[in-house]
Amino acid sequence: MKLKKLFKEIFRPLSQLKHFVRRKYLGMTRTEYKFLRSAFARLRYVELHEDGKIAMPYLETYLTRGCNLKCDYCSHHNPFRSGVEPQEVLLHSFEEWGKRLKPEKFALLGGEPLLHPNFAELVLAARKHFPDSVISITTNGLLLPKISGEALESFNRADRIVFLVSDHLGTPQFKEMLDRQVKRFKPLDGVSLTIEPFFKRWKTLHLHNENGEAIPANSDPKTAFRHCHSNLCRNILGDKLSFCSVLTNTACAYNEGAIRKEWKIALSHKPMTLTNTQEEIFAYIEERVQPVCSMCPGHLKSVEPKQLSLEEVRRIKKAA
Ligand code: SF4
Ligand code: SF4
Q1: What is the pLDDT of residues 48-67, one digit of tens each?
Q2: pTM of the model
Q3: How far apart are CA 229 and CA 233, in angstroms?
Q4: Which string of DSSP letters, residue by residue, matches 251-273?
Q5: Given 3.30.300, 3.30.9, 3.20.20, 3.40.50, which CATH number is that of 40-319?
Q6: Would you kindly state where each structural domain of the chain is located, as residue ranges?
Q7: How far apart are the CA of 122 and the centre of ligand 1, in A?
Q8: Residue 295: pLDDT band by 50, 70, 90 thresholds?
Q9: Centroid of ligand 2 to alpha carbon of 244 (angstroms)
Q10: For residues 270 and 257, what is the distance between their CA atoms, to the nearest angstrom?
C-alpha cells in the first residue's frame, strides 16, 4: 500500500510535467489547454441522442466576412474579404441546424462579428435555436463600447452568453478600453467577458510567399491536422456543415476572387448539407482528418502582431 502511494507521489508530478511541456509547446494558456483537452476527450463521445440530435462539444459559424482589423496572419483571409452574411441565411442556418445539432458551445465568429448590423438579434436567435449551448462570441473587442445597455441587458436575460476578446493590438489605450468593458460586464450574471492576450502565442495557419501573399502548404494532411488549432471547429453556414471555419472561409474567399488561385484546393472538400442523414453527419463530425488538410502547414509558426496597411491589402488582392 505504501509502495503504491509512493509510486503515485512520484508519477503524478511527472504526468503534470507532461501536460506543462505540451501546453508550452502549443503556446496556450492553462485555461485554453484544459478546454482543448476536455474538448478532445468529449469529441470521442460525440453522441446521437434519443431526441435525434447530435451532441458535440463545439460548433462555429461566422456572421461577417470582413473585419475592422487587417492582421497579416489572419487564417480566415478576412483582411481580403468584406461585407456580412445575410441575416436570413444565418437565421435559416441556426433554425435548421439547431434541430439537428446540440453543441456544448456554439461560437459566433467573423471577420469581426460585432460589425453585423443585426448582431444583437443574431445572438438572441442563436440562444433560441441552441437552447442547451453556451453561446460564445469571438471578437477583437474594438466595438465592445458600441454594444448598447439595452442589448447587454437582453444578453444577460438570455443567459450563458460569453464574449471572448482576442487582443491583436496590445496597446495601453486598447487595454484601458478593455478594462472599462470588463467593469461594465462584471455585475452581470448571464453574460461574461474574457480577454485573451494573444501576443507571443499567436500562431498562423498560413505560409506566405516572398510577396507576403498567403499560399497553401501542401503538407501531410495528418501532420497538419494534428498541429491545427482549428481541428475541432466544425462550422455551419446556410445549408452547409463544414469540417472547419478555415475551410469555409477559404472556399468563400476563393469564390469571391479575393485570394490566390492555388486556394482552389479548398473547393475539393465537400461539406455535409441538410439533405444528409443524421448518421452521415455524425460520422463526418467524428472524422479526424480530411485530404484537404494538406493546405495547412505541418508546423505552426509563432507570429508577431502586425497589421497590414490598406495599400498592402490592395496589392495582395490585386495579385490574386
Ligand atoms: S481580428 Fe481576427 S478576424 Fe480580424 S483580421 Fe485579425 S485575425 Fe482576422
Ligand atoms: S483544413 Fe484541416 S488542418 Fe486546415 S484548418 Fe481545417 S481542420 Fe485544420
Answers
A1: 888 899 999 899 999 999 99
A2: 0.85
A3: 9
A4: HHHHHTT-S-GGGGGGGGS--EE
A5: 3.20.20
A6: 40-319
A7: 20
A8: very high
A9: 6
A10: 20
